[in-house]
Amino acid sequence: MPPISHEYMEPGCHNQRNADAMLLVVDLGDPAVLDAVELISDVLQEWKILPTARLLTPEEAETLDVGVVPRRALLLGNKWDMPASKDNWDIIQEFYGTRWPTLAVSAMQGHHLEALHRELYALLDIVRVYTKPLAKSRT
Fold this sequence. Notes:
By secondary structure, the protein is of the alpha/beta class. It has a single domain (about 15-135), classed as P-loop containing nucleotide triphosphate hydrolases (Rossmann fold). The protein contains 6 helices and 4 strands. Strands 1, 2, 3 and 4 form a 4-stranded parallel sheet that branches.
């Protein structure tokens, strides 16, 4: 999807409103990483999209303002391999770790990419069904 950033913002929000889940990606090497998370949060609020950690119950959904759509979200910090990333990640965890599920990855080095796969499956409620035992299905 097009990014939400100061430099470029896609007009409208049709894809985001209709998505099953959202991956909120931030650059852990950026010293202004908290500003980036706030920008994402502010734009989604303007578009009446509420990123959530889980599906809302019908009772919780009824309390939302008219037009607001809840979408499950994962806050993903990329560039875990950058020098300042660990400090930035600790700050993100402190401010947003209880609001959304979070995960730090390095796309370049492959750090936590398997964990990302598992998190995405969980976020989307995808269930894998194997008709054969796993070891035999790969042959």
